[in-house]
Each structure stands twice: as structure tokens, then as C-alpha cells.
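Methods — Computational structure assignment.
A single polypeptide chain was analysed. Its primary sequence is given first, followed by the predicted tertiary structure written as C-alpha cells.
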Amino acid sequence: MAKPAFLAPLIDLVFPPRCPLCGDALAQQGGLCAACWSRLAVPGEPACSTCQRPLADTVVRSGEVQCAPCMADPPRHAGIAAATLYNGASRELVLAFKRGKRIALADLLSRLMVRRLPELEGEWLVLPVPLHRWRLWERGFNQSALLAARIARTIGQPLVVDGLVRRKRTPSLGGLGKRARAEALRGAISAHPARGARLKGARVLLVDDVMTSGATTNACLAALRKAGVAEVRIVCFARVLDEALDQARHDDAPLAA
């Protein structure tokens, strides 16, 4: 919830604005310092019109507007919007938000996500990627739901926080390959039975913090399609792409003395 403007000086006095990544002083709350902004890798152009994967200039000049993976295996979604590519800086923000429980970062992360969204005409239901109830109790919050709530409020669309449910507790997906992730998520996610009427024929904006192999979003897509959803777009804060790995290694490398 936004703080009244007249309280800003008092808040800044009690909690001096600091960069959440490096701790340097800031002019105002809710952002990053210039140096840390420069560390974020923002998806640029040219890019695949479907999945936002970076494309080479030569490919675009030859008339291709989709990446090879999308042409070979057309995705079941209507597009992906990622605020950043996953690198050292975005990883630090996600870990501080999710594991460090610095939930105030949801405001910053969601603002960056909204900036990458295309114009959405008509009504779209905003749904977060679900957590299993045991994981939710352990963590205390669903980070995707916090982002979804702020995005829904910003773009003026309805939030359906329990549109999807995670019925099976899956192991940590970190370190698993794409096939192992998909197998772990088999049958784990389904549409909430009480939301069936609302989902049928709807257009859905699916919200996640990090999109890695796509196994989780694919499981969500399958559940939404089974529920009769007409169209799904995906928005995430950070997306893992092979093309970004070199940049991530460069960002994580120690600085020369």
C-alpha cells in the first residue's frame, strides 16, 4: 500500500533510503543506486516477438521475428514479459525478497515488471504461480502473489490470488535439469475448482518472480488450458536465458584490484 506523501520525510528520517543491493545512500525510498541499476540486464531489442528471447540483428534483417525454439515448438502462451535477465544483480534482489523476507522489495520489482508489459486491452485476470501450502507456511508468504497483487492494482485488473493451487509438494527445483523439473511438476498444479466459472474463457496474466526452464509456467499453462482459459500471458521479474549467461558471469566476476 502506498504511503501518504506527507509521511515521506518522517519515514526517510527513521529509515534513511538505502540501495537494497549495496547499501549506499539514496535520495528517496524504493529504488537502486546508479551503479546497481547499471548491473541489471534488461531485455533489449531485437527480440523474439513471442518469448522475448534476444535475436541477432542479422536474423531480424532477414525477416525472422520469432526465435528458433518458438518456430520449432510454438508455445501455448501469448507472450512473455521479463523485467530483467537473470544475472548477479537480479539474483541478489530475488534472494533478498524471497529468502531474506524483504517483502518491501515487491514494490520495486513489480514496477519494473509493469514497465515491460504490453498494453492489455479488455479484462485480464492476474494470477500468481502458486506455492504448496506447506511451503507457504514455512516462508510466510507467496512472493508471486505479492507481485501479482501490486501489478493488478497498478494496471487496474482483477486479482485472483487462488486461481491456481499447488496440490503436490515438489522438491526444490534448483539444480534440476529441464526434464527433471517437468517430471517433478507433473500433476502438481491445477485450477482451483471454485474458480472454474471465472477462469473459463478468461484471459490470464500469470505472474512469477523467476522463470528458469519454463517447467513451472508450463504446468500452470496446462492447468489453465484444462480450465478453459482463452489466453495466457506471462510476466516475471527475472528470466534465465542461455544468451544471458556470459553477461551474468561478467557481472559476478570479482573486480580487479
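Note: Residues 6-14, 247-257 have pLDDT under 50 and may be disordered.
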